[in-house]
């Protein structure tokens, strides 16, 4: 019988309450808990007084642990503390000497260890500090070359192995403070001393969640063996016997709500077997608490296990409840009701909670309506107090275990438990922490105390160690405060209810941004849908099921009556039997009629104020959210997207609406709208990119004629209908579904079009560019985002579990059909075998099939042509013996096996394979620069990933890689609008970045004064100009901070350098998002006269470019600037347009010549192979002379969010 079937009305109602309080309002929850706690003023005063006495007593005992002393010296507010945390997290897993040295140098030399020498009260800590100071000095290179420096370098060479050994030993010793033993036998032996003093133990097998089935089997065996070993020491009362703690996430690689069936069929029986073994030994068996999105699932597992008749009469089954969760009290109610129903007695360990920072970040990233946890420490403390009272009223069924290092919490429990026997509950502490406090309590009260003791090898302790450092290193932590004598005992023992009441309605922490306010007051964050939440999933399913068999019918959406009659069937790529609907393709006549109507549409739309346009654009986003269930269904059935991807798709489209609406207002005085813009969008983001292109142009005041991808035209029809429903005039946004040959070619070769916005292949972009040069104005913009050969470098400091998680997402999510997807993985040779083995195991856990199902990770590819191309590519590698891994897929539907292929490097890849295919190569640590060079040499520049803990190495790689978006210690997909502007360079696009500050500006017309070309007998051919370009190869560009000063003597108007620093973009906590500008390279300034050429050169140079100036009189005009050593060369005359086709080594041209000559220039540029080079006519607009790059760093990768925890209130 399943838990759901066995549920009584009471249990059912409590589960509903648990779900309802998932994201409840913090103020309401806390004041309900205060009311339920019903603590008298006298009781609260007594609790605080006893807590203050405990603090004094603990301080007087002068027996803090090594770790408590360490944390008092190196907290999270010190740079040194964070550096040591990062070092501790990575050092012990690094196998190669070069990387060990780089890691130690990176973390140690950056610290100001001298400030800590002799400050600590522990001789050991002072000795360690002195060693770190000496290490730091040894590793630092001095600029002075003297005898002393020579000796230092000699010591450095001799000392490196010593440094490595000392640092390694220090980390192991630190680990010993937290880990009781390397295996269960050693742990039990070490625990005897404390047992002799009256303590008992609960053992925890170290390790993170399973990534593969092999992991899960290994963890299961470790638990089973530990139970066998512990059982030998069990006798009599379960409460006095040792116990074990079990993580459910260790028993199944995919312990997730979407895999509920597997959880109940595979994980639950494994956990039950372990529980039965524990019951046979009469020992405690605790199910550990995990992330809040797994709580509902864990309750199902707990109910199923506890309902097992074979466990009747055993009182050792335990559950951990986290007080920082807003639904902790309801969870306790449910456990009590379940115990009553089943006539059982259970144990409940009450903890404050772990990974609080991750819960905060997740809610922000997902755009949830609130946080699942309290944002203030005082609120968590109040919850702990209320839950303690609740538990102490349930002792007929529950044996409470109060796990805390907080004197106030301990004091509160003792006060609330007056009148209860000492055998009715126990305290718990972590091994290595809170010893003095619990020694005191054990001595004074006689209440038993259990030590929660981690067990495991050094390599497994890293993540655990860092969490303890993080959670106890914050200034607000009791463990930190108790050794800080500047804080009075009364301050430490302050009543959290008083703190909460003082705050009034301003309860949410000001240090934490609400998910809806992630982008400030100027725009709201898009609404998120949490598909791990049963209530949300039920609501989504109820809504989208109405469209499960629905058929849509669409065609051209025009301001005039369409004249088309070609109707095409649309079928679900996951299931050819599912007829999604029919689409009518536009004819040539429709294209012409749409462009005629668009001229009137432009006049009508551009006449509105920017503010009025913005309001209507925002309304589109609102309507998307109101119609989300239909859009979810259509995105899945037409485009083959999973629900996870469908949610992201709709959210991105809404973000575009909100962001571009504001941008349109921001740029309202920056220039006139272009006119009519053609938007051509791809099938892989059929709503997000489609919407972004259109709304950016509408916000700018342009009229749009849009051509969607043939494969996803129904979604485009529905989107445009919603745009019209929002109030945007029909003539301002028209839709022309159809083929590239009819619609695409027609639109991109029509003089009535004033600009083109395109996302698709590089080859198609080049074809469009050529067509535009023949038929449109020479300065008509082409904003193209094209493909990429995206790489990731993984060095030996990276955590394999994180790498595998991110590689899976980057390579296989969306069936690899993202332009940002990872195609080329470089793994340091020293760790490659183990990492790839883990990757292959994790691939086996992927759910492949119908994207409608929540359990599906990888859906179909878009059509038969795509499937054939991907399969042919993989087959070629398989025949060469280079297929490393391949996953089985369903036979029906357009599915492709996720595959890993072996290559020597990116040089072997001729083009992007747009599917779930990952190529892998290895490299030596010393050859990282060669890898970067190889990636740059391919000419693509879209996304790039780095997994490393060495900050200097990350900075070095990021500074050299030529890509638009670099991601550090995270996946490289899913750029967020306004936070991570997206777009590439080179063969990957023209810029500016979508969702960035320059995008809308590009669709406005800058003022350009065209000048007649001065007559010149001197026409410069390719050879002459190439020599000029080559001459600049070694020229040095003035540094950004002194460039303006260097240019002013020679140029009238010198804009400020845009490449000076970076712009910090808004985003979730635990992430850095930096947008920076970089010089394009060498720019040809073609005047056409000396005055305009010099002006162009000044702007180009101001942005860090090198400049070749060709115009009559240029040599004389620039003679002094050249003599001053600036990176500029000049030649009198004019360039032959054809020379532009043959030249190499330049990045753009700029000219304000009359349109016939500009047209020749643009046609010549379009005949070039390779990247699309711009012709810049807005020569005073400095943004046109730079490219944008974005760097996103997950700052929590080393184990947690130090800055957020340090700022916790």
UniProtKB/TrEMBL annotation:
GO terms for cellular component: cytoplasmic side of plasma membrane. Residues 562-1007 form the Aldehyde dehydrogenase domain. Residues 188-481 form the Proline dehydrogenase domain. Its EC number is 1.5.5.2, 1.2.1.88. Residues 14-59 form the Proline utilization A proline dehydrogenase N-terminal domain. The active site is at 785, 819. It catalyses: L-proline + a quinone = (S)-1-pyrroline-5-carboxylate + a quinol + H(+); L-glutamate 5-semialdehyde + NAD(+) + H2O = L-glutamate + NADH + 2 H(+). Pathway: Amino-acid degradation; L-proline degradation into L-glutamate; L-glutamate from L-proline: step 1/2; Amino-acid degradation; L-proline degradation into L-glutamate; L-glutamate from L-proline: step 2/2. Coiled coil: none annotated. Signal peptide: none annotated. Residues 67-178 form the Proline dehydrogenase PutA domain. InterPro entries: Ald_DH/histidinol_DH, Ald_DH_C, Ald_DH_CS_CYS, Ald_DH_N, Aldehyde_DH_dom, Bifunct_PutA, FAD-linked_oxidoreductase-like, PRODH. SUPFAM superfamilies: ALDH-like, FAD-linked oxidoreductase, N-terminal domain of bifunctional PutA protein. Transmembrane segments: none annotated. Its cofactor is FAD. One of its GO terms (biological process) is L-proline catabolic process to L-glutamate. Oxidizes proline to glutamate for use as a carbon and nitrogen source. PANTHER family: DELTA-1-PYRROLINE-5-CARBOXYLATE DEHYDROGENASE 1, ISOFORM A-RELATED, DELTA-1-PYRROLINE-5-CARBOXYLATE DEHYDROGENASE 2, ISOFORM A-RELATED. In the N-terminal section; belongs to the proline dehydrogenase family. In the C-terminal section; belongs to the aldehyde dehydrogenase family. This is Bifunctional protein PutA. The lineage of its organism: Bacteria, Pseudomonadati, Pseudomonadota, Gammaproteobacteria, Pseudomonadales.
